[in-house]
Amino acid sequence: MGRQASMKNLLVQLDDLPDEILMCIFKKLYNGEVLYSLMDVNQRLDRIVRDTIFLRDLCLLEYCPVDESTFSLPDPIIDRFCSTILPKIGHKIKTLFLSRTSIERVLHTTNYPNLNHLGLCDIEYKVAQSLFSDESPLAHVFKNQISSLFINLSFKDPFSREGLTSIIFMEIFKRCANLRCLKINPSLFDLGTLNNSIAYRTTICSTLLELHVTLTHMPDCLYILDGHFDQLRILHVTFDRTCFELLDTEHRLKLLPNLRIFSLCCAAKIFGYNESIVLLVRRMLNLEELDLNFALAHCTKFIDGDTLKKDIITYLPRLYKFTFNIWSRIYYNGIHFPSDEHNQNIFKHISNNHIITSTDQFQEKRYRRYHIYSYPYKWKLYNNITNNFRGGLFTSVTRVSLSDEHPFEYEFFLRIAQSFPFMKELTIKNRKAQHNKQLIKSNNNNQILSIIEYPNLTRLDLRKAHDDYLELFLFDTNISSPNNLHLCCNYQSLERVTNYFTRYITRNKCVNLAALYCNPMASTILAIVEYGAQKQRISLDPHSSYQDICNQIYSLFKLDTINSKYSLQRQDSLKFGLFINIDERTFQNELKQYAIKNSQNPVLRLRLIPAISKT
After folding, report:
1. Which of 54, 69, 90 is the last residue of a domain?
2. Contact 217, 245 (CB under 8 A)
3. What are the residue boundaries of the F-box domain, all occurrences included (predicted)?
4. End-to-end CA distance of the chain
5. Are 479 and 455 in contact (CB under 8 A)?
6. pLDDT (tens digit per residue) in 312-337
7. 389 inside domain
8. Are strands 479-480 and 486-489 parallel, antiparallel or unpaired?
9. Which are the contacts of 179, defined by CB distance < 8 A and separation ≥ 6?
């Protein structure tokens, strides 16, 4: 009754607002939420939500802000859409995104005569095979209507992926006669799959104009470009792993005059800049827009403005927009670095972007890193930020990683907060203790330093960070973050910082965590126990007390504990043949730490010896 009354009051309040205000409110919500909540509620709201702006594009997925993933809507919501909503609005839908569990049901609920753009998320192979078959009742839709397709395949058996993706890949182009834009899920292609799919055909699709795809190998990009999509104008390529392969001589001389927009992003590192990136891009004679985002490993020279001009820009006379984010690493010093002004002059005829550079020197690992990028920064990830970071405003960035050989202090975290206002994920890799830790505590007591605010932070990874940084985020006096924070850290660090979960100042932050991910702890530890000439195996609970383990071992060897006393020893982790006495007061903590450090194969060696009589 209370919920019904609350909904009734809400509807009364909505009815008091003019149509223009309601439209502004509803536009800020997901279309699916608007339709599910307000359609058929009353005549006025029904008229508003039937506006084309809410019906044209429909996404029946739920969004997770922590990792930006999507998943299926609850069954009751899908039931209402299929039974009541979709039959009334299906003829107005132009774009439709569906998840694995609802794909077949939603597509068969009603007709979609104006459907042009379709997204199939986390779709299983058998469902995809059924949809793209001749017998599918939707065959005419794919053949005559679908011009834009996003497909994200899911495989229960990863070893079967190569052959199955090849089949789906060919079926898509066979059935979708009017396909103009295709976006494929990560790693749909690999060298064997793609090569086998197109070996017997000159042209796979003569209608495709735009392709977004994640690849595994650099040569795969050539198989896409070498005449198999002869009308392709836009290509976005992401490599999901380190690229070692170089382009072979056979493909080096073939030109790619049709391509107008090319984007390349490598999630890991690229080897052989000249033999991969340069040779590939130079073939795109009529390229107008170019976007490069990669890190170069083990290079003999830094990639700066002069290098990009000499290797790429000179060969692309029609290029008018060039955005880039390039890291390069070199293992010796004595190199001259051009100024930002010099780099700016090189790119002044291409775009209005500013060019920013930075240099970091890592003495412990004996290398230098050079970063050059176009600003405004357009990418979601900003990696490898050090203390040399000069700041700025990066509104597109949602994921940030910090890494340095020198400690991060209060001013640095303040600069990060100001530079990345929409940061959702933060990873800190720094094993060095803070120098000004005590000063921060003193200032906080006197309320001199303001609290640093990370209002959008949802995920914090401190697995490779010193305890000081965990303390910084868990103390109420240092950093303000939302209550839905997902924290990744080492279990030992968490115990130290919270003083085994008894420290009051960390209580509020710990209680309000949405999720806590610690190093995995083995559920059981296999122990090999020696007693004289005997050896026995026993499974131990990492949470067991010293006395519980002793009782297990006594029972295992059928020992008389009334008339005899025994001591338990464990093998020294540093000296294989040496056994040391176990400290009863700290044994339980040691057992937990052992289970964490050896979570994949925890085998503990113990030895039981008769206790020495003191009489």
Report:
1. 54
2. yes
3. 11-58
4. 78
5. no
6. 999 999 999 999 999 988 876 556 66
7. no
8. unpaired
9. 146, 147, 148, 149, 172, 173, 205, 207, 208
